[in-house]
Each structure stands twice: as C-alpha cells, then as structure tokens.
Amino acid sequence: MAYSFYPGCSMEATGKAYGVSxxxxxxxxxxxxxxxxxxxxxxxxxxxxxIGDFPQQAITARNLALAEKNGAGDILVGCSSxxxxxxxxxxxxxxxxxxxxxxxxxxxxxxxxxNGTLRVRHLLDVLVNDIGLDExxxxxxxxxxxxxxxxxxxCQTVRGVRRPDFDDVxxxxxxxQIVEAMGATAVPFxxxxxxxxxxxxxxxxxxxxxxxxxxxxxxxxxxxDVIVTPCPMCHMNCDAYQKKINQVKGRNxxxxxxFITQLMGVAFDLKVKELGFEHNIVSPQKILKRFGL
Amino acid sequence: MAKKIGVYVCTGCGIGDxxxxxxxxxxxxxxxxxxxxxxxxxxxxxxxxxxxxKDLEGEEGVNAVIVAGCSGRVNTDVFNFGPxxxxxxxxxxxxxxxxxxxxxxxxxxxxxxxxxxxxxKVQKSELPEPYIxxxxxKTILVVGGGLVGLTAALEAAAAGYKVxxxxxxxSLGGWVAKQYKQVALRPPYDELRENDIQDIIKQxxxxxxxxxYTSAKSEGISGGPGIFEVTINQNGNTVKEKxxxxxxxxxxxxxxxxxxxxxxxxxxxxxxxxxxxxxMASSGKITRPSDGKEVQSVTFIQCAxxxxxxxxxxxxxxxxxxxxxxxxYVKEQNPDATAVIIYKDLRAAGxxxxxxxxxxxxxxxxxxxxxxxxNEAGGQVSVEAEDVVRxxxxxxxxDLVVLATGMVPTTAFGEEELTVEVKEGExxxxxxxxxxxxxxxxxxNLQYRQGPELPSLKYGFPDSHFxxxxxxxxxxxxxxxxxxxxxxxxxxxxxxAAGAALKAIQCVELTAKGAAVHPRALDFSFPEFNLSxxxxxxxxxxxxxxxxxxxxxxxxxLPHPTRCRRCGTCMGACPERIISFKNYSVGMIGSMLxxxxxxxxxxxxxxxxxxxxxxxxxxxLDIAGINRLEYNPWIRIIPVRCLGSLNLIWIADAMSNxxxxxxxxxxxxGDDYQCHFVKGSELAEIRLSKISETLDRLRLESERVQMRxxxxxxxxxIPKILDEFAEKLEExxxxxxxxx
Amino acid sequence: MCAFKYNPAASREVYNLESGKYAQQCMQCGLCAVTCPxxxxxxxxxxxxxxMLFAGEVDKVLKANxxxxxxxxxxxxxxxxxxxxxxxxxxxxxxxxxxxxxxAPVATLSKVFFDSMMKRGRxxxxxxxxxxxxxxxxxxxKDAMKMQDVGMAMMKAxxxxxxxxxxxxxxxxxxxxxxxxxxxAKEGH
Lengths: 293, 740, 189
Ligand code: SF4
Ligand code: SF4
Ligand code: SF4
Ligand code: SF4
Ligand code: SF4
Ligand code: SF4
Fold this sequence. Notes:
heterotrimer, A: alpha/beta, four-stranded parallel β-sheet, globular, B: alpha/beta, Rossmann fold, FAD/NAD(P)-binding domain, seven-stranded mixed β-sheet, five-stranded parallel β-sheet, 19 helices, 29% helix, binds iron/sulfur cluster
C-alpha cells in the first residue's frame, strides 16, 4: 500500500507531536506514505474569507494535481481541516463537471491538470479500512487495558465531505473501534463530533473556552483518563488551552490529550522518544507510567 | 330441493381439547336430527375438505354444509363449495374456546347454543338466486368534461367499456383548460410543463368508445345500476342514453371573491383572484388592471376564504401549489420582479416540495403569517400581515395582489332540502335520523324518491363514503371523483378519476352478475317485499340509506334491486315484517334466538343476547378471541348484516324467551360515522329508544336493552363492555318473564 | 402605524454571491439554529440571518457577527433538511463582508493567513500571529498579553517554531493559479 501524504502546515508546528508520531506509525505499519512533492497550504478554513471559495479551492487543487502526477496513490491526510479542504474539492471534482472544468482552467495557468482519479482519505479511514482492526490488534504488544479513552474525532474529521463517508457524521465510531482494538475502553462520549471552536483562539477566545470547555467537561463526566484525537486543532485547544480553561471557568481538569498516533505508538511498543510526547502540554506522564514508560 | 344438512365439527385449533365435543355433535344428531354429522381434527386441511366433498358428491347427497370451527371470516375460500351449496359457519373458536375457559360446563353450553343457531339458520335459509335485470348495459356515464371527467372516460374506455360523457360548456377541458402551465406529474418535478389538456381532449374525441355531448346536461336519470336511463339535453335537443354506472366529475367553482372585501377584492382594482391572474398569464402578459402596466411585484395571499370559519372552514388543497406555479409565472415574465407568498402553512407535500424549492431558488419570498389588512399606498397595494417568524407586523407593497381563493364543489349550489319530511310527533326523531340533505344543484336530476342529487354530508360535498372506500356515494353506482368529492390538487384528481372509473366498472360487472357491490360485494341475496300486506307506511322508502326504493303510482314501495346494497335496513324498519332476504329474515333470526336454551331461574345461569354487526363488531369479537380476552359466559352472539336490519320484534322475542338482557354492538354514527351502511346503527339506536317505552309498560327495566358503538380497533374493550352489562343485569335480577 | 416593510429585491446582491443563492431555499425550520455550537455568541442564528435576507435587511446582515463566528464545523450543513450548504453560504458572506471592508477580527486574521500563505506557499504560524497582533492594534495586543501563558507553553513545547517553513518551489505556480481562479470567479458562478 502506498499513499501520497499531505502533511499540512500544522504537522510541522502546532501539531508537531502528530507529525512525529505519524512518521513512527507510518514506518511501523508500512504505510509507505510519502509527502506530495512541493505541496502547498490548503488555506485552512480562513482563506476563502479573503478570496472566496473558488480561488482557495483552485489553490488546494494544485495538491491533488501534483499527487495525481506523482502517481504514488490515494491521498492520505492527517489534519482534519486539510482533509476537509482536499476531500471536498476532490468530491466537487467528481460530482460537479462544471466545477472540474473551471478548476482545471485555473490549474492550467500553471500547466497542471487534475482528472479526479484519486481518493482523499483521512488517516482514520485508512487505519480502519486499509490496515484493519485485526491488524491493529495483532500489532498491539502492550494492550492498553483499563485505559478509559474519550474518543474525540472532531467535527471536520467526520464531516469533511459533509455526506456520510467512512464514519457517522453525528456519532462517529471508527476512532473508538481503533482504540478498543488496542485493548483500551472507549467511554461513551457525547462530544465526539462536536466543534472545539477551531481557530478562534485569537479572534474569539471565549468560544474556545466555551466549546473546548464543554468537550473537556464531557470527557471528564464520562470518566475518561485521556482524550484521543486525530485533529491538530482539537488537540491544541484541549491541550494548550486546558489550563486557561481551568482558570477562566474555575475547573480542575488534568486530562492528557493524545494524538491517536501517539496512543498507537504506546500500544505497539514503539520507542517513546519517537512519539513526540515532549510536545504535549498537559503532562502525559501519568498515562505513560501506567504502561511502564 | 330438500335440504340435506351435513354438520362438520372441527376439533383442531384447540377446540377438541377445550370442549366436550360429544355434547356438540349430539345437538346436531339428537336435537336436530341432521343426517350427516362428522368430526375432524383439521377440517381446513386437504383431508378435511375431501371429507366434506365426498359427502356432497357421494350417496349422502349433502347439499347444505355447516362447518363448526373457526370464524366465518377466515378460510372462506377453503369452505366454498360453489354456488349450489349452502355453507354456514358455526363459530367454536374465536367466540368460544379462545375466550372462555376450557373444559367448563358453561363453555360447552355456548358451543351447543351456537350449533343450535347455525342449524336453525340453515333450516330457515334458502340459496339466494341472483337478481339479474333485463337489458343490463355496461356503458359508463361521465358527468363533467374537465380533467377528471376526461381521464375517467379514457380509463374506462381503455378497459374496454363504452363511455358517454356530458359537459355543460361548449368545449371540453374545464378549469384546467384555462391554465397557462401545469405542474409536473413526473420528474423533473421542479419544472412547470406546457398545458397538455388539448391532447387529452383530442384523445377523448378520437376514441371510438367515447360519445361526447357538449353544451349538454342531464335532465333526468331513472333506473339504477346496469339500467340507468339518462335524458340528455343538448342545446335543447333531447337524447336518451342507457348506462350502467356513473362517474360524477363536475368539479368545483372558485369561492366567491366578492365576499373577500377584507382582502381588498372589489376595493382595489389591482387585487385579483387566482383565476383572473391565470387568465392574464395565459393571455401573454401579466399587467395591472388599473393602468395596464407590466407588473414588477406581485403578492399572493393564501387561504383567501379557506380555512376561515367565516368563509370556507376547510383547506382547499390546491391553492398552495397553485400559487407556487403562479409565482413562477411572475419570475418567468421578469426574473427581477418580486413575488411574495403570504401563507398560513405551505401545503405542498410530496413531490411538490421540489416545486417549492424551485420557487425559492427563483427568489420567491415566503412569509408565514396572517393577513391583517389590505390598503392602497402610493399607487401600490399594501398588504399588512402578522409575520409569525419575525414576530411582528410587516408590510408588503406590490403592483398586484392575487387572492388564492378556495374551491366550492359544484354540488353545493342550489336549494337545500331533506329527503324525508320531518313532521311533528312520535315519528319525528326517526324521520330526522333518516333524513339526508339534498342540494338541488341541477346536475344529475335523479328520479329517486329521496331526491334528485347525491346526499351531501358537509359543506356541500356529496358524501363520499370515506370509511369504506373513496368515490363511494350514498347512491349505488354513482361515484364522485375529483374536486366535486373533496378539495384536491391535479395529481390527486387524476388518481381519483382512475379510481372512480374502476369502481364504476366493478359496479357494472357485479350488477350484470346479479351481485351486490361494496361492502357486500358478491352477495346474491336481495330484499323481497310481500306487498300484499304492505300498509304503505313508507318507512322502507324513507329509511333506505341508498335511496333504493321508489314509490309506484299507488304509493306502494317500488324496490330497485340493482341500487340495493343488501344492508337489511328496510327489513329492520318494516313494521309489518314483510321484507326479507332468502338467507336473512326477521323470522330466521327470531328462530335462532328462540332455539337458544335459556335455563330456568333457579339454575342461576342468566342469558344475554348480543346482536353484533358483521362489519366491525364481529371482527372486533374475533380479534378479542385471537387475543384470548375472556368475557362473561352468559353471552350469546347473533351476527347481523347491519344494526339497521334490527327489527324490534327480536327484542320482544328475546325478552319473552327469558333473556335477561339484550345488547346491540354496532358502528359509530354521527358526522364522522363509521357505519358501513351510513345510518344503520343510528336508526337502530332510535328504534331502541322506542322500545324502552314498551319495556317500561311491561315493567321491564329499559336498561335491559342497550346499545354500544364499537369499531374494529376496540376489540380490547369488548370484555369490559360485556362484563359491565352482565353486572348491571345481575343488579337488576333475573328477567321476571323467564319462567312463563 | 408604520410596519416593517419587506424589500426582497435589496438582497439580490447577496444571492448573487458565490454560494449566496442557497440561502434562498431556507424554509425557516430552525434546525441550524439549535445545532450551531456558536449560537450563543452570535447576533443572529443562521436561520435568522436568512430570514433577514428574505426581508431585504442587507445592512443588518452585513453587521452581523454570525458568519465570523462560524467555525466551519459543518454540523448545520449535514443536518439542514433543505440540503443548504450553510458553511459555503457563510464563506460567501464573510468574503462579501471582507470586500466591504469589515473590521471583524477573523477578517484580519484571514488576511494575514492569506498573506503568509502566499509568501511561501505554506503558513508560518508564529509570523502570522505576530502580524495579526500588529494589524489589530492595541486592543488585540492587550488581549494577547492575557494569553501570554498559553503562548509561552506552546513555545516551550516547541510547537511554535521560530523559523518559517521552507518556501514552496512552485510558489510562482500557486500565484498563477490564484490569479486565474480569481479572474474566473469574477466571470460569475
Ligand atoms: S382453522 Fe378452522 S377448520 Fe382449520 S383446524 Fe382451525 S378450527 Fe378447524
Ligand atoms: S391549499 Fe394552502 S392556500 Fe389553499 S386552503 Fe390549503 S393551506 Fe390555504
Ligand atoms: S337492503 Fe338496504 S339498500 Fe337494499 S333496499 Fe333495503 S335498506 Fe335499501
Ligand atoms: S316498511 Fe313495510 S309496510 Fe312500510 S311501506 Fe315498506 S314494505 Fe310497506
Ligand atoms: S436548517 Fe436549513 S432550512 Fe432549516 S432554518 Fe437552517 S438553513 Fe433554513
Ligand atoms: S458550520 Fe458554522 S454555522 Fe454551521 S453549525 Fe458549525 S459553526 Fe454553526
């Protein structure tokens, strides 16, 4: 299996732990995910505000065209926001001929063209459908027994293409299946596909306090030991803002937040150094200790 | 031919385990001396049926079969041995072993009594012979040449029937012919389509099976199903046609807008009705009547006169979709023009959702609310409305206001009269119950004793028997369809046309066989009148719910059997008891109840007689059995065709035979009646009120006779109803006439 | 009595935006309003916004913070019984506000993000953050001070690299695609 990997800007910065641990999993599972050569930023959820949807989508489509040209395989995306942009543009290419034609016209300005031959896959989709739960189970060397996990899929992960795709748009279950395959318990978690507030940290920080605050509260109520997510934005809000939320809302959470790839690294008994835990802000130690790390 | 009765007692389905079968067979063998009495463990199986067949064909020469086992409502095909073999079903299952304790003396007694009644019923019955009129025709008359009439004509013709179509206007097409465009009947549902009524008209005109009379109306219709004779007046010339059944498709008229001054009609020139607007659109340009300028903005007011207690209390069903269509005309003429629809609820269900979305996409604006005022402002019409979504009063100014006026059935126009003259005095109540409202709309001009048009139920719509079947009316063989029957849109009206055409076809086919139509389809019995003893009291002619009985010159009842639905209401009404069916008569039921064994008082086993209507009460009792609901063991049940067939003599007989009480179980009556024969249960209740005086005179408490309304869904109430009645009777003590 | 006057024609400009036309299909069921996680911070729910458009209240729509608080979580979009891509409508409204010179903070952020992206083809998060505060003026900087602890923690966890990412080789191509796409978008949708 080989994939064209789209890392996205955050895997090298705010989501560093994701980038590092993904690499470890990539190797361990033999995903053969190689970066799309010379990929560019997809514009996240904000660039359309300045230039409109179509130009942003055309810029995003450059990545699709490059991946198709490179011929390495389906596009694999880890960041949910990037996934939403790439997968949605891809969907439009496949279902709206007029859009495809117009977008190709824009791409042709750079001598590029996209024929819509690829699929854009979220990491969770690939893990559960290509790798498979049995394989994940088989790979698990340290079963995460007794670990109670709030599986926070995030909104754009499951609704990136808007229509139900690889998971339920309201009550996702894939992440829970992966976590359980590794021996942990996925606690019933009401906020699995709720919004964390996204990128409103600078612009409306109260939204982060409210929305991420709700997510943390729900995880806490569910009796979770740890929150696990595949989304850099969810991760940052739950992890980096946890202390602030404790201050503002008078709470007392001490809830480590892992990327799914980090948790897999633990279960697969990979080198803990390679899992990027130094980038976690809420200390992961109490969890790691339970598994002798 | 002499009857030779074979009695077959089934011991399957738990019957054999619960009953002392010997007692049951003994009734047939010893008490009634039936020549053939057999038991079988599974009568409905192949072997069981063979057993019966052998006796029918073999030397036993059985020609009347009594199957004692399951309800007569099941296995009807299994126990059907052709038209020459009388079959009676004695219920031992649903009404006995499934609702009473097993191996109990009282349960056995019910089974024995049911057996007695079954045998007596067969003894008193004869095989009905079909009533077949001479010269039956199967031609179908369609009254009204609009979309529904045309469609019904084409449907009937396509099925191979000749059709006579009459239309009062000079040309066909009706209301739809005046439409600019039509809604889509198949995908894409969001597009309007060109009006294709001219194609349909052409198909009708070219169809050799269809005879069209335009500028024509019915001057008189005599006869009945299969033998209607229609006098058609076409431009002053009279033509006679013989037809077998009639589809009434005369449609509706728009509500009179002059009554809608509060919505600006008549006050401002630029307030028009939807039909006036349609005409403008058809003519090519939508303009303001006041100055002839092309409109830039149009506001549609929905429910104009509909859903309004002051005007039409009902929803006219078509106008929401009509306004969607018309708003699209505005956009078609000028995409920049504004169209606003002010509505209470947008009733555009099903595929019309696509049209609704389309109108929105074209920029039509929808305001949910109630119009509170219409005024003029700066050369425009200004509509004020309570916008319930905004929660405030809003104003919409536009060049033109269109009122989405509702529809009134064509049958609603004319003098109202009652089918029965209600005089003061003793009989007034019965007469009032029997009376139907007839509006002299001058459409059919039936030569029926009960009046010239279809009786109406509410708002002038002919009563279409919705409980049992749409398109049914209170006149057998006449089927209203389309907007004359109920408010509806074009799609529904087209379905209606096909449905009514099929009902008409069923009617002519059944009539040709001499059989009844719905709800006793394929019943070959019909009422016979022993007129030599008739006192001309007119009860039968007045009370027949279907107007089946006319009067002859000497004012004797003149039955029209093909109009008859075989309900027996006339039989119940006749004080001389001279109306009877071959297999259903006053005497027959009287004998059945007299053959029930009523124990003497000291045995302390009371008896309660229940007359249960076959349409709902009997099924409810069956379902109670299926659900193993237990009830009082003193009950004995006699099924009747309709409570309307209840003759008071039965109650007198029951009382003098020592029954402690009588209960009637029949369908709901009133405006939303469920009675399959319209008024049977109501008439029974009124007859009952009369007997209470008689009972009082006999010093019998009138509570001993009661009536309850039950529907098939009330099966779970059955035990309660019966047990409470039994308790009440216990309080009253035994019938003092018991031991006489 | 001077009742509120409907003026649907006034909203035509908005309906002509890239995804503006979809707003017309709203049937005011209110599902988006109860769905939106940010509704408690919004001046108007999406439903109210669309109703205002029906009535022609474009000025109010322009002032509303609603689109700017939309996080693109897509929940309303998957739930809307009319299938309205509400998130796209929000994008179009934001773009519209932006062109009209809005001062909404997210607009400023979007602009610095876009600039950062067009400079290297990828976003330099720290640089972009700084640029945002520079642009937003004193108030925003004051807010930023309050958030210093979060920023410091991020720095310490090495999640805000000080050096920008490598420039994309095909940056010229990105620009060409952008220019062409903008031109095509202007031609109409
Ligand atoms: S269904 Fe009727 S005939 Fe058949 S075994 Fe049961 S009781 Fe007998
Ligand atoms: S169809 Fe619509 S406009 Fe007509 S009466 Fe019914 S609700 Fe009112
Ligand atoms: S049986 Fe019923 S329908 Fe027939 S004539 Fe008697 S009352 Fe009328
Ligand atoms: S009810 Fe009986 S007595 Fe009276 S008119 Fe009819 S047939 Fe004659
Ligand atoms: S959910 Fe859709 S239809 Fe309902 S109010 Fe919101 S936008 Fe309108
Ligand atoms: S996409 Fe935007 S408007 Fe819709 S629910 Fe999410 S935040 Fe609210």
